[in-house]
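Students often ask why we bother encoding 3D structure as a string. The short answer is that it lets us treat folding as translation between two languages. Here is a chain of 92 residues written in the first language.
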Amino acid sequence: MMLSNFSGGNVNCKYLIAYKSLDDDFDCDNGYRGNIQFGLSVKDKDIADVSQSSGWEIDNNNNSPANYNSQEPVRSSQTHNNGRAMKPQALQ
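And here it is in the second language, the structure alphabet:
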């Protein structure tokens, strides 16, 4: 289950929460342009998918992959917890 999918357009939003999603928590594609502030995602390690989904999946224009400059999401104040303990080297 994906909480937020921004497929094109200009949308500004605040205070998004994804809780125990099975796939990427937030997703944008097809030329999305907008501001996303205060995003929080928390995964459950026992139900998250095995593909190692992440907090964000940002794709290009699926109908015209060569149009690589179409995405302009501005993300700020994002916190993503993958439900697994951090490895010590990640803290260095």
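Translate back mentally: The chain is about 0% helix and 40% strand. Keep this in mind for the problem set.
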